[in-house]
Amino acid sequence: MTTKREMRISVARDFTPYPGPRYIKQGPNSGERFRKKVLVPALEKAESIVVDLDGTTGFGSSFLDEAFGGLISVEGMSRAEVEKRIRIKSDQDATYHNMVWEAVREAKTLATA
Amino acid sequence: MQEAGNAPVQLAPGEAIEYPLDGTSNRLVIQLQPPASHRLLDPLIYAPAIPGVIVALAGLAIAHYLTKRLDRRREANNLSLALQKSAQDAAKSAIHAWGTPKDDARQHLIFDVKRELQALGIAATQLKRRTHTKIDVVKEVAALRTAATADPFEDPEREADQGPVGNIQSALSTLLVAITEKCDRYYS
Predict the structure, then answer these.
(1) What's the pLDDT tens digit per position in A59-81?
(2) What are the backbone dihedrals phi and psi of residue B6, each rounded to the nearest 5 degrees, phi first?
């Protein structure tokens, strides 16, 4: 399989403008669903991805934690790999940038979870 | 200076004659000014005005700079006041949503809280950019969002819960203090 060098994902365009709760069982448009249906497949296709968080109605901390922290705690990626392969674009609200990387920093790896 | 006699005297511009010749009383000095057209083209004629022009231009430049600075500060002040109001509103909405029992209406409240927190985040981002990062409260807004929307905020099965109120108020207080302190430093 050929891999793209970089892929751009917009949460509003490629997933939903109305981000939901943490888990799929809690409701639609969850962080878990975004990770499984959008983030992980994109990481399989491309060396690096740019995730655009602009254009939604607003994220809760649990969505971001599950989507990005879950790459480490659920998908088994290393923190270094996540930091290397994912770029966050959040021009409108820079606070999301802080929250995503804090979720990545705080995520427990599968081995330590 | 030439002395006037009976013979006609020709004067060049700038030259002068004195009359009467004995110089005792009622002396009259006649001096020809250069023609007006020549005076206007002579750069030296403007020399005495140059310092005044420089002072006036410097004054205009300083006034322009100060006005711009005042405008920027007024804009930043308005943004910071709006930020404080948005933060208080968002925290109030979050506390209300936490305290609301599970039903369909709570989903709308949760949606509103996330929308208000995003508006707060956008305002904080704008304030940071317009003040060249001198008023940067992005980290504090992120902390308020974490306190307001932490698990199990969006869990449809959770009961009304006043537990997180303390954390929300603490994060709000930290944010308001940060805005006030950074604004004071910026304006001083």
Answers:
(1) 999 999 999 999 999 999 999 99
(2) -75, -30
Of B125, B145, B154, the CB nearest to A99: B145
What ranges make up the beta strands (E) of chain B?
2-3, 16-19, 28-31
Q: How far apart are the first and last CA of chain B?
A: 64
Element (H, E) at B171: helix B165-187
Asked if B114's CB is within 8 angstroms of A95's CB, the reply is no
* Whole-number Å distance between alpha carbons of B44 and A44: 79
Q: What are the tens digits of pLDDT across the range B31-44?
A: 666 666 666 777 78
Q: CB-CB: which of A61, A93, A98 is closest to B149?
A: A61
Interchain proximity B118–A18, CB inside 8 Å: no
Name the nearest CA neighbour of B87 among B1, B149, B168: B168
Q: How confident is the model at residue B27 (pLDDT cuts 50, 70, 90)?
A: low
CATH architecture of B73-187: Up-down Bundle (1.20)
Q: What is the ipTM, given to two decimal places?
A: 0.92
B145 touches chain A (CB under 8 A): yes
Phi, psi of B183 (to 5 degrees): -65, -45
- Parse chain A into domains and list their residue ranges: 4-106
Chain B residues with CB under 8 Å of A98 CB are 138-139, 142
Q: Do B154 and A27 touch (CB under 8 A)?
A: yes
Q: Give B169-175 contacts, CB < 8 A, sequence gap 24+.
A: B169/B91, B169/B95, B171/B91, B171/B140, B171/B143, B171/B144, B171/B146, B171/B147, B172/B87, B172/B88, B172/B91, B172/B144, B174/B140, B174/B143, B175/B87, B175/B137, B175/B140, B175/B141, B175/B143, B175/B144
